[in-house]
Every structure is written in structure tokens, then in C-alpha cells.
Specification:
Order of helices and strands: HHH
Number of helices: 3
Helix content: over 70%
Largest sheet: none
Shape: rod-shaped
Low-confidence stretches: none
Distance between the termini: 85 Å
Length: about 100
């Protein structure tokens, strides 16, 4: 009677490992890709919002430098996530930074 129990234990262990392997190879890449797309959208929206905020920070040099630093950080994060994105083109035509 012991051999059938051993066979069941081995087969259920194998099935459990295969289910975990399926989860890693099938589900995880889709979730990581969706997360990357959400991060790209976040950084694009942040760059756009900071561009708008920079137009409103007329005479405040400190605020303008903070906004420019934030925009540079979001632009570099976006460039890391999506190389060749349109932020580099927008930076070429960006507003002049306060001195």
C-alpha cells in the first residue's frame, strides 16, 4: 500500500511545481509589462504637468529650478523606461530655465 501513496505524493509535488512554473513564465511577464506601461504613462503625464507649471512660475526662480529638476528627473526616468521617447524632442523646445 505504500507505493501508491509515494506515487501520489510525487505526482502532486510535480503538479505543484508545474503550476508555480506556469505562473512565473505566463502571468509574471504580463504583469511586469502592464506595470511598465503604467510607469511610462505616469512619467509622460508628470512631464506634461510640469511643463504647464513652468509656464505659470513666472518670476520665482526657486520654484522654476525645482520644477526644472523634477521635470529632468521624470524625463530621464521616461527615457530609461522608453528609450527614444518624445520627451527628448520636447526638451529641445522646452521653456528657458530661470537663471
Amino acid at each position: 500500500m505504500a507505493p501508491p501513496i509515494a506515487v501520489l505524493m510525487v505526482s502532486f509535488t510535480f503538479i505543484s511545481f508545474m503550476a508555480a512554473a506556469w505562473a512565473v513564465t505566463s502571468v509574471l511577464p504580463r504583469r511586469l509589462e502592464a506595470r511598465t506601461h503604467r510607469q511610462i504613462a505616469l512619467h509622460r503625464e508628470a512631464v506634461a504637468a510640469l511643463d504647464i507649471a513652468m509656464t505659470r512660475a513666472d518670476n520665482d526662480a526657486g520654484q522654476m529650478s525645482r520644477l526644472a529638476a523634477n521635470r529632468a528627473w521624470h524625463a530621464s526616468a521616461l527615457e530609461t523606461l522608453a528609450p527614444g521617447s518624445s520627451v527628448r524632442a520636447a526638451e529641445a523646445t522646452a521653456l528657458p530655465k530661470a537663471a
